[in-house]
Amino acid sequence: MPRRRIRVTDAAFRSAFTALRTELGVPSDFPPEVTAEAERPPLLKAYDDATDIPLFTIDPPGSTDLDQAMHLSRRGTGYRVRYAIADVAAFVVPGSALDAETHRRVLTLYFPDTRIPLHPPVLSEGAASLLPDQVRPAALWTIDLDADGRTTAADVRRALVRSRARLDYEGVQKAIDSGTAEEPLFLLKEVGELRERLEVERGGISLNVPEQEIVQRNGTYELMYRAGVPADGWNAQISLLTGMAAADLMLAYGTGVLRTLPAAPDGAVGRLRRTAHALHIDWPHHVSYAALVRSLDPRIPHHAAFLQECTTLLRGAGYTVFRDGVLPAITTHAAVAAPYAHCTAPLRRLADRYASEICLAAVAGTAVPDWVLAAFEALPHEMAEGGRLAATAERECVDIVEAALLKDRVGEVFDGCVVDVEERRPTVGTVQLETPAVIGRVEGAGLELGERMRVRLTEADPASAGGAKVRFAPA
What we know:
Layout: E1 6-8, H1 14-24, H2 32-38, E2 48-49, E3 55-58, E4 68-75, E5 78-86, H3 97-105, E6 109-110, E7 115-116, H4 121-127, E8 135-145, E9 151-167, H5 169-178, H6 183-202, E10 211-217, E11 220-226, H7 230-253, E12 256-260, H8 266-278, H9 289-295, H10 301-310, E13 318-322, H11 350-364, H12 370-374, H13 379-406, E14 413-421, E15 428-433, E16 439-443, E17 452-461, E18 469-474
Parallel strand pairs: 1-10, 2-9, 3-9, 16-18
Antiparallel strand pairs: 4-5, 5-8, 6-7, 8-9, 10-11, 12-13, 14-15, 14-17, 15-16, 17-18
Helix pairs in contact: 1-13, 6-7, 7-11
């Protein structure tokens, strides 16, 4: 699920975020024995030498935990995508203290003021990271595409690679727009746009979720949104392409771990329609959700706010494992509109290490390692628990930020719309404000779904016991 990115520049928030991490039991420092194991050299197996491929990485400025590096080239009338994924299995010994710690953490957790990594930084930001001018072990994908961007062949093998450049999205966009980009980088735009067209064709949707930023001005807080550039989307398409290729490989092989998502229930879509209504976004009934999202501009504040809420339709996503040719009932991801697997971020997601191993075995025609199969039964539950913690942390961070945004405005009246009402307690619901575009709990008689109403802010406490609180009552 796309992360709801929140950025704050005020140190006043840090104590609230620190308290939240303590309350949620978020891990902090790594035990000494785990760090010691992470400092050991990798266990290199049979690796091809692919250090001649001029790979490059694209990440936010300053990033050092680099999971992926790519190179794109023309191949006849089509294209060849080379995509190197950090080979974390070369560093993590099954059954070791480091392995156990990754199963305890499951995911890298992101907070507005810091991140809590899955692996010790000496590994995730050092020895295993695809940093420039460093030889690194990787799972190297080779994916061939036709002139329309459709996959014609996919292969993955262990290889030693060496990235040539660490790029960021803004720099990539500027180089492509100015015409100064070299062909491998320019092809990112060409292939990315072809893949975006195929996504539309199959009914998939990629959410361009903007970063939510809280800035302090004149003694008060203001809510702003920072939209990404098109290069973000093109880069994401390469990751999606690889995840779809991995899913197809595992399904043909008969053993795998998929990222699945059933179609959104009507109630969730209905709530999202009410949110669109509250934010004055026109959503005719004959227009699909995918078509609506593609029509939005994340640079427009109320469009950005709606895109933030669209992530709620992805909350049913989970991990589905299968083996010995017995395929699961659901093999697709509704937002991708195809079978899909997480395999491109093993430094930040536990499941990706397992998916990568299965794909390597499938291509080589060998058996899946025993340590992979031993983890199969518990892996979906572990990932679900980690996902719940990440979602709770994200939700609580949003509550803290929004409560701080409104803390000096208790008693004021706002225009809003009721987007949800509890079935068992019809006097309790959720209201979406028009300006600022925040949501909060509303309590009062006569709440009606979709009703526009004026509400009075009764509470906005970013440091409230049990979590930040934003509450309203009918005005």
